[in-house]
Amino acid sequence: MNIVLYGIPREHALRLAERYGFETCSSFEALNEGNRLLLQPHLATDEEQLAFFEQMARSEQLIDAVIIGRSDAFSTVHYCSSPGKLFTVNRDADEESLDYELDRIVETQLGLVSAHEGINNQPN
Predict the structure, then answer these.
(1) Cβ–Cβ < 8 Å for 109, 3
(2) Engineering a disulfide at 4: which of 66, 73, 101, 106 sits with its beta carbon 3.0 to 4.6 angstroms away?
(3) What is the pLDDT of residues 56-72, one digit of tens each?
(4) Residue 42 gets which letter from DSSP?
């Protein structure tokens, strides 16, 4: 499983990686190795946004989820993310709330929890 993190503070990404057994990386090429959290730095220029868009398009099949914590490049990241793979979190939330939001997204993507929390899906 490969997840692109945009605008997520590094310390939260590292905790997430440790908790779920991901490796962190900073290049799309590393996604070929699987189970990666790609830490995407801030896209400050039009050239960076275009390069990001091109990399996302080339790596689409390798990316399982994109989590955005910054609103400044939301339209660029949203436009190049596949439907159903884009998630947003409140980056300004306190540390515990942000970690909880990230955990729920990753756990759902990994199949560890269902989207219907609290519903017993086990047969009687």
Answers:
(1) yes
(2) 66
(3) 989 999 999 999 886 66
(4) P
Task: Mention every residue, 6+ apart, whose C-beta is less than 8 A from residue 72.
Answer: 7, 42, 43
DSSP 28: G
- H-assigned helices in the chain: 10-20, 46-59, 74-79, 95-109
Is the separation of the CB atoms in 36 and 24 below 8 Å? Answer: yes
Q: Contact at 8 Å (CB) between 80 and 18?
A: no
How many helices (H) does the chain have, and how many strands (E)? 4, 5
pTM here?
Answer: 0.84
More confident residue, 121 or 1: 1
Quick one: angle between helices 10-20 and 95-109, nearest 10? 40
